[in-house]
Amino acid sequence: MSTQEFQRNRDNFCYRHPDRQSFVLCQRCLRTICPECQTQGAVGVICPECLRDQQKAQSPAQKKAERRWSRPRAVSASAGRPIVTYSIIAITAFVFLLTLIPGGFGGAVQDALYYWAPLLYPEFRGTSQPWRLLTVALVHSGIWHVGLNMLALWMIGRSLEPLLGRGRFLTLYLLSALGGSVAVTLLSFTTPVVGASGAIFGLFGALLVIGRHIGANIAGIALVLGINLVIGFIPGFNVSWQAHVGGLVVGLLVAFIYTRTRAVRQRGLQIGLLVAVGAGLVALLFVPVFFPALIIL
Ligand SMILES: [Zn+2]
Ligand SMILES: [Zn+2]
């Protein structure tokens, strides 16, 4: 889809602000609304027109109760807030602090969460610890490593999460993290890795597909990722370019699915394609078992 085609597809833009791209729909009328037009409803978000209709339909007693017990303005302001982004940053920072605890505890946390492909396969190590495919994104090799990754996550998540919606943003992050681990498995089997870089590069890939339509600060984000890449070449950091490539490819793919399955009637197709991406990545993890000659140690 070219930029012009994309611009012509009105489904991709807020019905009240035709210049603002968004992937979030009003749960009541199913029209596209930008972060500013979203108000958190009981299920999902609703648009200002539906909010007005809903309030009109309320009885005077209901209205009084709502005035007393809720603050619609505050709720409205939080609807576009990147809660998933902030949560991932908080959890990752918390785990990083845990790994700093001396006396063996910090080291034990790191040992339990980092990714090393042989630990996935009973054939190699007599044990299978699949959680490492994702928990690798929680552990980092130092303050600069975690700092740069979280800075990039904050820069991208702030604009991408309100645009995609929380569920799609989280799915993108997790599939990209998985993509990074799968790429390490196939391209650098014996290298132990830590870091959220695969997931972050996935977000960046998605921004390249989606963000060029919304004018996000791609240059600034590219600079942070560039520094991140350079750090990857410093020995002892356990950051692998293989994870970056894997995350980036998955991010591009997932964002492409999002842009092509925008309509309400395509929701089932979108979920099906995302499940297929996840299943495809898991299937690739069987390559070392059935075709060990293909993997790069
Ligand atoms: Zn509506
Ligand atoms: Zn709007």
Care to describe what's here?
There is one protein chain. Helix content is 61%, strand content 1%. The chain has 297 residues and is mainly α. It folds into two domains: 3-79, no CATH class; 83-294, Rhomboid-like fold, CATH 1.20.1540. The chain has a two-stranded antiparallel sheet with strand order 1-2. A hairpin with a 4-residue loop joins strand 1 (39-40) and strand 2. The longest helix is centred in the middle third of the chain and has 22 residues, at 143-164. One of its GO terms (molecular function) is serine-type endopeptidase activity.
What's a concise summary of this model?
The chain is an all-alpha fold and 297 residues long.
Layout of helices and strands:
Layout: H1 3-8, E1 39-40, E2 45-46, H2 48-57, H3 60-69, H4 72-79, H5 83-99, H6 105-113, H7 122-125, H8 132-135, H9 143-164, H10 166-187, H11 197-210, H12 218-231, H13 241-260, H14 267-284, H15 287-290
Antiparallel strand pairs: 1-2
The structure holds zinc ion (2 copies).
Residues 14, 16-17, 20, 33-34, 36-37 line the site of one zinc ion.
Structural key phrases:
297 residues; mainly alpha; Rhomboid-like fold; two-stranded antiparallel sheet; 15 helices; elongated; binds zinc ion
| Overall strand count | 2
- CATH class division of the largest domain: Mainly Alpha
* Topology as a string of helices (H) and strands (E): HEEHHHHHHHHHHHHHH
Q: What value does the average pLDDT take?
A: 85
Strand order of the largest sheet: 1-2
Question: β content, as a range?
Answer: under 5%
The radius of gyration computed from the alpha-carbon positions, rounded to a whole number of angstroms, is 21 Å
**CATH architecture classification name of the largest domain:** Up-down Bundle
Helical residue percent band:
55-70%
The tally of helices reads: 15
Q: Which ranges are low-confidence, i.e. pLDDT below 50, for 5 or more consecutive residues?
A: 71-77
Instruction: Please state the structural category.
Output: mainly alpha
The biggest sheet, with number of strands, parallel, antiparallel or mixed sense and barrel status, is: 2 strands, antiparallel
Distance N to C terminus: 38 Å
Query: What is the CATH topology assignment of the largest domain?
Result: Rhomboid-like fold
- Basic shape: elongated
Give the distinct bound molecules: zinc ion
Number of discrete domains:
2
CATH H-level superfamily title of the largest domain: Rhomboid-like
Domain Peptidase S54 rhomboid: 128-259
InterPro entries: Peptidase_S54_rhomboid_dom (IPR022764), Rhomboid-like_sf (IPR035952), Rhomboid_protease_S54 (IPR050925)
Pfam families: Rhomboid
GO cellular component, one term: membrane
